[in-house]
Amino acid sequence: MLTPELRARLARIGWSDAIVLPEDVPSGHLPARVIIQHRNGYVVHDGASEFTVQPAPRFLKRSLDPVERPAVGDFVLLKPGKPAQIETVLPRHATLSRAAAGERYQRQLIATNVDSVLVLMGLDGDFNPRRLERYLALIQASGATCVVVLTKADRHDDLDALLVDVGEVLPPDIIVHAVNAKDPDSVAVLHPYLGTGRTAVVVGSSGVGKSTLTNTLLGEERQATKAVREHDSRGRHTTTFRALIPLPQGGCLIDTPGMRELKLTGEEDLQAGQFADIDSLAMQCRFGDCAHQSEPGCAVRVALDSGELDPERWANYQKLRDELQAQASSLEAQLKRKSEAKVLNKALGKRLNEKYGHR
How many CA atoms lie within 13 A of 231 on its CB side? Predict the structure, then answer.
């Protein structure tokens, strides 16, 4: 049971009614939040101060799914000690993740317990509608709200026209803000996503202004920043690890390194997100199994020929759809292997107990 004093303290690090505390919390165990994850341990914040802790031994097992380990944004229960130990990860209410690079299927957590995902794209040479569609697909599966933040607005002459163009590639419910990440007055439009008890994670390419935005919200130069390359408007990785930062606005911001690869996890639903119109077109085709190639009565081909459907957007949808199907198959196979291994281990344990348990 949280006292009003403890609840108020935890609110400084994003605690809200969405976080569920178990009824049987062991005596002396206190809640905290993971703000940094290192190879040799974690840094947590209890609402008053930050300090280093170690994970319980079971979190170090190589066979454990990385998703089950503590991650930045997690609320955890700490077992007293020197150092304290992460004993329990509290249930997550929203998780942003991607598939890790490589051939072996594995999910990689980007941030947990987030209310909003701020997708940053620069209005220089960084803006890319196709990459934005990929971000939207990942966010749609996370349970968090997507907010598109167009940085370097001070460098664009016709901002209103650009916002109209951006709106054409986004679902109508996606909020878009154009800001100058160096100007506190400009970024004030983001304060509603960063109030007490709220957490946002900022994602985007290197050099887009994530660390600059974080510094402006903080009111101090805490995160390192570097200039971008002139020929492609890309930057180097100035942020090298994820970090959760309490803000003066009352909420928390999770700063992340620039992500070069955004692989789908297999749990996304393209039809429920920014491609709902394409799904609607496909349902109008004469044949239910239409491949949208040369079949008669294909509504998708008609939309492409008339210009109603952008060919690049259609091609990106096909690419994401194929990737999603492949990832979903990999995820299903992984879950099947885990289930079979669990049944096998249970049967083996029962057999060993029958053979040696009564000796």
Answer: 0
Q: What is the pLDDT of residue 356?
A: 63
246-261 tens-digit pLDDT = 999 999 999 988 776 7
Strands 30-38 and 75-79: antiparallel
Sign of the Cα pseudo-torsion (156, 254, 187, 141, in order): positive
- Residue for token pair 């081909």: 301
Tell me how far apart the alpha carbons of residues 164 and 227 are, in angstroms, rounded to a whole number: 28
The encoded tokens of residue 166 equal 């951006």
Alpha helices by DSSP H, listed for the chain, are 4-11, 129-140, 159-168, 184-187, 210-218, 276-282, 299-306, 311-356
pTM higher than the cut 0.85: no
- Tell me the pLDDT band of 225, cut-offs 50, 70 and 90: low
Give the tens place of pLDDT for each residue, 346-357: 666 666 676 566
Q: How many CB atoms lie within 10 A of CB 212?
A: 22
Q: Which residues contact 204 (CB under 8 A, 6 or more apart)?
A: 119, 120, 121, 126, 210, 258, 259
d(C-alpha 55, C-alpha 59), whole Å: 6
Short-list 306, 316, 304, 330, CA closest to 270: 316
Which residue do the tokens 């239409």 mark? 290
Q: Is the pLDDT of residue 70 over 90?
A: yes
